[in-house]
Recover the amino acids of this structure.
């Protein structure tokens, strides 16, 4: 019996690291096969497809049997580096892989051949390995390494093609994000000095006995570092300065995945590893969340560049996830987790649509867009639906996480004397309203009005370009698929919300997570 | 005693790094990032506690290093951080150099291609 259990665990062990292994191996193979240009796209597609399958199996396994762990090189935790996967990590990794798969289809029509030959595919796979590694690892220093893997590949992707605007954007993105990871490393060093371990499951056990004030200081540093990564107010300025510069497919990929890793790291470190520090930082996180919730959609209302406006809406969504962290109860954390999953899908779909809109209008500024409703009815319907999803209008996907947040906020406030809970509760509602205004304005300007500013009155839509057959097949089709996933998950939210609730329970009580690494006996 | 000296040195490094990072010149910011990385590395070394030199090597029939052996883990962490930091620094240096040539600016205030200044107000319709 013991032997069977051992071998069963062995097979599962491989599942834990396989997403990262496949991503790294595919990336390396694509670099080696740089000259086989016809095979690059197919190889990348095949690799990501395999990662989707492995992630789905891993998620299924975690749902069935609880968190799983693997520690490298047969070193006993906490000495070896552990990969520990719970439902939050597995679900995030799966959604990230699905988004990447659809973007790989999309990128074919979006990026000119010569830019793709500079290594777009290996970099995308490398980015996915960094993102998957960050979601699956159970060691804080290893998380730092995956952050850097993700960072260096996103630098490459953002500068790919090397237009002036991209260089400018990459400088700002690069310096500020490198600074954020340096702060993360600083917090890691202090944490190691304080508790003497960097294994997450181990920290979860010993954090309660550490000096709470010192731990809160480390928590504040982590909040700054991950808040910068997540583009939370007031350290959000790098995002609208950079995400609109690369080609739409690349900005969709970065917008869909990168900030969410920051959110994940915040949830993991503050909510699960050091809840005491989170409690002490509660007002700070609340202020950050409220600021992000309000600043994001206000920026989107004032902005005329389409993808910059979407970037501000993305920041508003980060505010919603921060609000869940600030609430810190079951409803709040479940709202945070499900909102992050929703944002990965919805924001990516919006950026993909933005690329199609830019192709049809030949402009990046909404002032030069207009009258697309008659010319392209399908994108206009998709954009409208996705905007409602971002704002959180039922029955679209964004509604359910916000409902959880509202519910969690009310559970904590309960007509009592907790002003922060009330403020967060109100801010989530204000964010929904402002996002709706921003989305409706964008839709009205791009699609509904007769033509762009200064368009000739007799033929206002004469200069619109129809989508090429290739753009329809490779650009519109994956966007429709992603929008369909958003719609389906919105109509049947039980699955996603079930994952989110179970994940939030795991964050609040990491006993099963710790037991998976073997650092404590599982509760009977 | 040594711990305190190292902590002070790390603090000095980080203070100078922050001063340099507040500059608008890309090269100064880069130097600031390098100093910040080194300050953090020193701090990790101090975080692992310094001790008299007993190498963490398991000799003979022993199964664990001597109780007063040095802590090897911070050195592994620092080594990783140095490698990563150097890669990032190289990339950012090349990027800054290219940006300097193409945009004719090493002052971040003058790098406004991605965010052009003085744009008109957003449309008031709708």
């Amino acid at each position: 019996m013991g032997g069977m259990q051992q071998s069963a665990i062995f097979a599962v062990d491989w599942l834990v690291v396989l997403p990262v292994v496949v991503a790294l191996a595919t990336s390396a193979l694509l670099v080696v096969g740089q000259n086989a240009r016809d095979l690059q796209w197919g190889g990348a597609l095949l690799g990501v497809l395999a990662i989707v399958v492995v992630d789905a199996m891993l998620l299924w396994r975690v749902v069935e049997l609880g968190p799983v762990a693997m520690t490298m090189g047969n070193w006993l935790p906490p000495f070896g580096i552990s990969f520990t996967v719970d439902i939050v990590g597995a679900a995030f990794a799966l959604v990230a892989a699905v988004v990447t798969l659809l973007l790989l289809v999309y990128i074919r029509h979006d990026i000119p051949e010569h830019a793709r030959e500079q290594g777009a595919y290996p970099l995308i796979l490398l980015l996915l390995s960094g993102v998957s590694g960050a979601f699956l690892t159970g060691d804080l220093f290893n998380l730092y390494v995956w952050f850097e893997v993700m960072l260096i590949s996103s630098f490459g992707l953002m500068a790919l093609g090397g237009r002036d605007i991209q260089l400018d954007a990459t400088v700002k993105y690069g310096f500020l994000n490198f600074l954020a990871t340096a702060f993360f490393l600083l917090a890691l060093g202090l944490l190691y000095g304080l508790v003497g371990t960097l294994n997450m499951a181990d920290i979860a056990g010993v954090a309660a006995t550490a000096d709470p004030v010192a731990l809160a200081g480390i928590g504040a540093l982590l909040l700054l570092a991950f808040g910068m990564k997540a583009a939370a107010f007031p350290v959000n300025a790098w995002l609208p300065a950079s995400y609109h510069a690369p080609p739409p497919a690349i900005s969709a990929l970065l917008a869909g995945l990168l900030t969410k890793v920051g959110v994940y790291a915040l949830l993991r470190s503050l909510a699960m590893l050091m809840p005491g520090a989170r409690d002490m930082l509660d007002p700070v996180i609340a202020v950050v969340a409220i600021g992000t919730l309000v600043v994001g959609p206000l920026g989107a209302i004032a902005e005329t560049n389409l993808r910059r406006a979407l970037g501000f809406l993305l920041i508003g969504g980060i505010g919603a996830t921060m609000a869940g962290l600030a609430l810190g109860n079951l409803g709040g954390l479940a709202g945070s987790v499900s909102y992050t999953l929703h944002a990965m899908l919805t924001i990516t779909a919006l950026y993909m649509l933005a690329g199609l809109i830019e192709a049809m209008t030949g402009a990046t500024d909404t002032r030069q867009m207009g009258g697309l409703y008659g010319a392209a009815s399908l994108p206009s319907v998709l954009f409208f639906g996705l905007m409602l999803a971002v704002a959180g209008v039922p029955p679209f996907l964004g509604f359910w996480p916000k409902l959880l947040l509202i519910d969690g906020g009310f559970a904590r406030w309960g007509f009592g004397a907790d002003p922060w809970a009330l403020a967060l509760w109100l801010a989530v509602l204000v964010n929904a309203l402002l996002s709706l205004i921003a989305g409706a304005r964008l839709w009205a300007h791009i699609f509904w009005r007769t033509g762009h500013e200064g368009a000739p009155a007799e033929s206002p839509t004469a200069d619109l370009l129809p989508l090429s057959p290739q753009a329809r097949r490779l650009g519109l089709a994956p966007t429709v698929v992603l929008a369909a996933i958003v719609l389906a998950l919105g109509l049947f939210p039980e699955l996603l919300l079930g994952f989110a609730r179970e994940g939030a329970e795991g964050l609040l009580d990491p006993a099963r997570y710790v037991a998976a690494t073997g650092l404590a006996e599982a509760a009977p | 005693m040594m711990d305190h000296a190292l902590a002070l040195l790390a603090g000095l490094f980080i203070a100078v790094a922050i001063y340099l990072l507040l500059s608008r010149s890309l090269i100064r910011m880069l130097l600031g990032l390098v100093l910040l990385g080194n300050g953090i590395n020193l701090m990790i070394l101090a975080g692992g506690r310094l001790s008299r030199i007993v190498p963490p090597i398991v000799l003979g029939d022993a199964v664990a290093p001597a109780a007063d052996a040095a802590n090897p883990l911070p050195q592994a962490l620092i080594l990783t951080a140095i490698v990563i930091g150097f890669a990032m620094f190289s990339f950012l240096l090349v990027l800054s150099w290219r940006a300097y040539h193409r945009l004719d600016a090493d002052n971040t205030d003058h790098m406004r291609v991605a965010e052009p200044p003085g744009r008109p107000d957003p449309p008031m319709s709708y």
In short: Residues 1-8 of chain A have pLDDT under 50 and may be disordered. The longest strand of chain A covers residues 68-71.
